[in-house]
Amino acid sequence: MATDLAEAIESGVDRALIAGGDGLVNRALPALLSSTADVPGVPVGLVPVGTGNDFARSFGRVRGLDQMIEHALGATQLVDLLQTPGGPVASVATAGFSGRVNLTANAMTVPMGSMKYTAATLRESIRLRPVPLRMELDDGRVVDQDVSFVAIANTRYFGGGMAICPDAEPADGLLDITVVDPLSAPRLLLFLPLVYSGRHVRHPAVTTFRARSVALRCGETFWGDGEPLGFSEGTIAVAPRSLAIAVGGSVPGTGAGF
Questions:
Q1: Which of 43, 110, 154, 170 could form a disulfide with 244 if both were Cys (CB 3.0 to 4.6 A apart)?
Q2: Which residues are CB-neighbours of 53 under 8 A, at least 6 positions away?
Q3: Which secondary-structure segment (H or E) carries 138?
Q4: Phi/psi of residue 122, each to 5°?
Q5: What is the rounded average pLDDT of the residues 194-199?
Q6: 3-state secondary structure 201-236
């Protein structure tokens, strides 16, 4: 897929349409990004028909395939990305319990859609365990503790609509970081429904941060956009204004290129 997209972009298309979910966006990012750091590559429009669709959710939800395509062909905006040792990430990089949920959900064939994450969450809660995390923010603050999970975000959502970093803005040049202290399985299952509305940030087990970069060492590997990133230690930094993405509205004379 990435090779075909790269060849299409090389041929001079004016827009790429991605029909899928967060994982497909993640796999397309290397081809979408310009080789020139300060010049965004080809604009992208999202047709969110995947499992979680968390990245697309941050740019307006529309229903029906025709409306999705119209939205994907609309006006664009430059947004940030996460630069990680495992490659670029569009929405959220996470490790710990949330990473294990991703692993389990990816292996499941039923149920479909975001309910897959709910089922995976229930399954993984039985095996809940704390994870060691050391995190140094670019302003010198240090977190060194066991956690249930950590999420480092460019946009608000992960796990099929959970607002893990509810104040995240995709073009503010900052990472939003949520750290959740170790919780027992019953407490975690009571905690997780709060995440859909973002009210979890007031929970005593939650600490939030903002930074431009963060150096991490974690006891488990990170996942990004629902895909394995293959690292447990390294630096995650914001890559400002790296991607032009459709946010709706009208762009006369613009069509799909891929």
A1: 43
A2: 21, 22, 114, 160
A3: none
A4: -65, -40
A5: 95
A6: HHCCCEEEEEECEEEEEECCCCEECCEECCCCEEEE
**DSSP at 199:** G
Residue 246 C-alpha from the chain's centroid? 17
pLDDT in tens, 173-193: 999 999 999 999 999 999 999
Q: State the span(s) of the chain assigned CATH 2.60.200.40.
A: 87-240
pTM over 0.85: yes
CB-based contacts of 163, cutoff 8 Å, min separation 6: 156, 157, 195, 196, 197, 198
Does the pLDDT at position 79 exceed 80? yes
Q: Which residues pair with 239 in a beta bridge?
A: 81
Mean pLDDT calculated for residue range 67-96: 94
C-alpha to C-alpha distance for 162 and 157, rounded to whole angstroms: 5
| pLDDT at residue 240 is higher than 60 | yes
Average pLDDT, whole number, for the chain?
88
Lookup: tokens for 57: 């959710």
Distance CA 227, CA 24 (A): 9
Instruction: Identify each DSSP E strand in the chain by its residue range.
Output: 16-20, 44-48, 75-84, 87-89, 92-96, 131-137, 142-147, 149-153, 175-180, 206-211, 213-218, 223-224, 227-228, 233-248
List the CATH code of the domain at 2-79+242-248: 3.40.50.10330
> CATH 3.40.50.10330 in the chain, residues?
2-79+242-248
Residues 44/245, Cβ–Cβ less than 8 Å: yes
Instruction: Give the fold, CATH level 3, of 87-240.
Output: Tumour Suppressor Smad4 (2.60.200)
